[in-house]
């Protein structure tokens, strides 16, 4: 048996070759090809994944433009999101579809980041600007939902925990705090930016919450996003594969398979050394203090290689450093 990790779900399948007649990742075989809604892969293309015994799942994922990483020794397969998604549209998750017609700030944070202390300030902005058609949606990147729980108790804005890293994958989030602005039509108004709602850690990150929240208010009230960049910054192929290795590592850590988990974590770090959402985010599952010595060693490593911890620098912060 193989455990399949895909689309935010976990399920058991018989193997990497799926029997004929089964639905695969929401796609069904029809006389003219594989179809999902109005989208179809014609039979002549689908033949590349079909065998006498069934459908090769890895090849089929490739036909869908979805990266995949398998560990057959550990019996697990992770399939990522399709490549080539529209970068000017906000990928949907959780509460987002129900907020169409509202401006949204998607706030990525984690309990292993000092930005957890910003959540009350984001809640205040949510309440203050709600009458203008605005909502905060906070997304915790904690791999352990219980770690995020204590910080969510008094919040009224929509909040989710991205334990499998799928939302971070969709939005190409490599560190926290990261914020994305989405307009009423579900389009990107401002892509992934480092943004704080308080100055608690300004001495470390050099970021002005006053300038950032003033810019947010201008956008909500006056519609001025203050940027010409209206597309999410796309992930590279290596970043996509790194996130799948991280997904396998998290699953393996939870199953107490530490050696295999650390192998996939090392692979993820090699593919995307700059991705702190992976490297620091998995520390708690591996029994490592994300505020301890290993984290500061990681910071030193990245700084020595010229990799910025907080990036990209929002334009409203340029005069504050």
TrEMBL record:
Residues 84-218 form the Thioredoxin domain. One of its GO terms (molecular function) is oxidoreductase activity. Pfam families: Redoxin. This is Peroxiredoxin. It comes from Streptosporangium subroseum.
């Amino acid at each position: 048996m193989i455990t399949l990790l895909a689309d935010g779900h976990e399920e058991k399948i018989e193997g990497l070759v799926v029997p004929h007649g089964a639905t695969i990742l929401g796609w069904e075989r029809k006389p003219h090809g594989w179809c999902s809604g109005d989208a179809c892969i014609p039979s002549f293309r689908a033949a590349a994944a079909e065998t006498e015994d069934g459908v090769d799942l890895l090849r089929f994922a490739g036909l869908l433009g979805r990266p995949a990483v398998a560990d057959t020794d550990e019996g697990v397969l992770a399939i990522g999101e399709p490549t080539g998604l529209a970068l000017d549209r906000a990928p949907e998750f959780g509460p987002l579809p129900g907020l169409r017609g509202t401006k949204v700030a998607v706030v990525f944070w984690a309990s292993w980041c000092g930005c957890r202390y910003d959540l009350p300030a984001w809640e205040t902005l949510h309440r203050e600007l709600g009458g203008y058609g605005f909502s905060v949606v906070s997304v915790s990147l904690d791999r352990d939902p219980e770690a995020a729980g204590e910080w969510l108790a008094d919040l009224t804005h929509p909040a989710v925990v991205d334990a499998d890293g799928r939302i971070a994958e969709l939005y190409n989030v490599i560190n926290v705090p990261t914020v994305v602005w989405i307009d009423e039509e579900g389009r990107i108004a401002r892509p992934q930016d480092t943004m704080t709602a308080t100055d608690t850690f300004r001495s470390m990150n050099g970021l002005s919450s006053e300038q950032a929240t003033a810019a947010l208010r201008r956008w909500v009230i006056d519609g001025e996003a203050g940027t010409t960049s209206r597309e999410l910054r796309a992930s590279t192929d290596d970043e996509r594969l790194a996130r799948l290795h991280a997904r396998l590592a998290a699953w393996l850590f939870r199953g107490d398979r530490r050696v295999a988990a650390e192998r996939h974590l090392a692979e993820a770090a090699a593919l995307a050394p700059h991705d702190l959402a992976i490297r620091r985010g998995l520390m708690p599952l591996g029994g490592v203090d994300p505020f301890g010595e290993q984290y500061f060693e990681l910071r030193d490593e990245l700084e020595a290689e010229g990799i910025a911890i907080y990036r990209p620098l929002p334009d409203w912060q340029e005069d504050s450093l």
